[in-house]
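Quick note —
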Amino acid sequence: MATSARHDLIVVGAGPGGYVAALRAAQLGLNVACVDESPALGGTCLRIGCIPSKALLESSERFWEAKEKFAGHGIQCAGLTLDLPAMLRRKEQIVSTLTRGVEALFKKNKVTRYLGHGQLQGPGSLKVEGPETSISLKAKYILLATGSEPASLPGIAPDGERIGTSTEALSYAEVPRHLVVIGAGYIGLELGSVWRRLGARVTVLEYLDRVLPGLDAELAADARKLLEKQGLEFRLGCKVTAARQQNGQCIVEAQGQEPLLCDRVLVAVGRVPHTRRLGLETVGIALDKKGRIPVDQHFATGAEGVCAIGDVIAGPMLAHKAEDEGMACVEHLVTGRSHVNYDAIAAVVYTQPELAAVGKTEDQLKEAGVAYRKGIFPFRGNGRARTLGQVDGWIKLLADAKTDRLLGAHILGPHAGDLINEAATAIAFGASSEDLARTCHVHPTLGEALREAALGVADRAIHI
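Predicted structure written out below.
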């Protein structure tokens, strides 16, 4: 291999933000390189995050439904057993297929791939240290998209065996007898749900007095009740001070409480930007107080030719947010145009039922002094939800009291992650609740519940 090479753009990181940016830049005619340390492309989301967790969520939900729900459909499943190795193989096959898909897209779009760790060496220069060789790269533009990594907690040192992060929790070789999850955010609740469905006792410890901070408080409270019915145990307002392994068991200590004994601990207290060993100092980039790379509205860092997107900059740590930023960044570099509408970026929690949200919450509107109206509709009034046997949850829409413009949508219920896209589109186009209410929705579908919530903004929902 050559010891040096030149490109128009070098993308550091092959996660959703990085690889999408590389592909879009190649479509726009740039000579693009992408640097990543992992032999498999796709980043944390595809390899050890979003995709494998959703595969396990789907498989575990099927198993749980076969045990608990199929009889109500007239389907008997006598002798049902769990084949965990087969379930894990299915997960790995899905991941492998998608990572190979990214590799094929790189080849199709002539994106040059470098395996190794990328480190800035001054303006327009990047050194790649690979497993077998190193190479110096030059480019007019360098885009940093290195993502994030699990946050740590004082007093807890993951050992990669009994005490671990989401990475280990995706591949337990056997179902834990008792899993303690530290953190009641989306990662903790999703993976806690997986192992509870498969037979584990799951205890969730959360420092705050609620679950799912940042989401609508009412929906989060109802979600907790539904998860408790599924067997998850919650200890809120719980400050964990230590976790250690002793004699093949784990001991978790919390302030003012008796120690918990378990056989697995999942530390899920959030994620932090992955900015170590990037050589930021060589181009004069200083991190902010939260360890993020400061950028302007076009993702420029202030260092000539260096941009950053995704989890290493401010904003929610979401794969689709990183994708949008990656496309917007390279489009602006080439055309001088493009932006991201952050008000229309939704978030989803893939528990059962799912939670999804886009736009403002009631608390945010109250804090900002914005007058609003809301419409609420329960899934119990929706015919399609009845046929699915999934009637728990509801939809809340928030609209400006004067203009009726849609400001927020919050969903707890079946396929919430799919339904939220309609609300996100409406917010992106500046639609009103009346626009949604006047749009004919197919019957019977779950989308009708969204329309009913829109009708409810003006107190005229039909099926309630």
